[in-house]
Sequence to fold (183 residues):
Amino acid sequence: MKLETFLQDSSNKVAENRILKLAVLVIGGAVLFNTVLLSRAMNTARTIIIPPALNSRLEVTQEGASEESLRAYARYVMSLAGNYTQTSARGQFEELIGLYAPESYPEAKKSFYELADRIEIAHITSAFYIQQIFFTPSLIEVRGVRKQFVEVTRVDEAVKSYFLKYRIIDGRFSLLNITEKQE
Fold:
């Protein structure tokens, strides 16, 4: 850089250093501004999923999910937990416990494997027909008709409600537990 404004060479160097410091500050400010914008963009990013079986968009953000998403998760969970035969129960329950949060996994694994053993021994078939789904923060209530059969004989038909306690962390749906509502 040639600055010939001053007669002394040292004065030219001081002016040149001021210009370079200003350039470094401008670049630093631009990097800081870019970092803030990038951070905001990452925190407000959404993933929009449109599975083939649905007609509406599912939106899952870092903090929560849309009602359509929760409805789809509830239907999926209840189809795995409520519709089984003696041959399909163990496989479905293995898939279901994969949805559990790490701290709830051991308890869920134990209870679903015990249930699968009872189903296989007694030759139980179950069907759960969802009628209504209600939402509250971190809790989904699913109400429907459960029919159970042993071999071909119907042994139970009742209206049941189940609570699905869940959480969404970093856009991932995790089950905490499934409990039957006592009426």
